[in-house]
Amino acid sequence: MTKADGVHSTPRINSPIERPVESMDSFSAQPATGQSETGERTSESRKPAKGLSRRMALAGLAALPLALPAAAAVPDPVFAAIRRYNVLSAEYTAAVDRWAPLEHEHPDRPDAEDETSRRSSALFEQMDVIFTFEPSTVAGVTALLNYISTLEEWQMPPGLEDGNGKEAVQTLCSRLAAAIEQSGVAV
């Protein structure tokens, strides 16, 4: 075997592979972020590690996606507005049911009329809220559209019940479009 062959040839199967180590310090331990430079590794110490460990950083990053849906899980305020409108509609209906059968000379009529007027005012204020509301989620937009589609004629804002509600419809549509745009849903 020539000398060139001995240098570049593969070792025999039975021979041990021994390579000399150039330096023992070539892979010396470096202190971790926030670790003291005493040379003692955190893994060799019996004390808890100081600073942010890799394990804690990964645990924090792993929990991050869980926090994002929790923030999105906050209910859209439109649901509370719809519930309030339902309550006011029921209260107004009950007030009208008490007032309507009373004769003009009935002693309870003025009180029933005042009650009906108060309930009507509260209902119309909430009606303005409902028809100008800008939901914060796509689910809120869907709920509002579905809810409005179930309203009776007397529950509609002035102008819509007689067919001349262009302004109310434009306001509603622009609010809902803005809500969809802000939600980030691709349109």
Salient structural properties:
187 residues, mainly alpha, 6 helices, elongated, Twin-arginine translocation signal domain-containing protein
Commentary on this structure:
The protein is mostly helical. It has a domain of 108 residues. The protein contains six helices and no strands. It is elongated and about 120 Å long. The N and C termini lie far apart (76 Å). The relative contact order is 0.08. About 3% of the residues have low confidence.
Q: Which stretches of 5+ consecutive residues score pLDDT under 50?
A: 66-71
Largest sheet: none
Q: What is the string of helix and strand elements?
A: HHHHHH
Number of helices: 6
Strand count: 0
The fraction of residues assigned to DSSP E strands is under 5%
Helix content percent band: 40-55%
Q: Label the structural class.
A: mainly alpha
pLDDT averaged residue by residue:
72
Rg is: 38 Å
Overall form: elongated
Separation of termini? 76 Å
Organism: Bradyrhizobium cytisi
Biased composition (Basic and acidic residues): 38-47
Protein name: Twin-arginine translocation signal domain-containing protein
Region (Disordered): 1-51
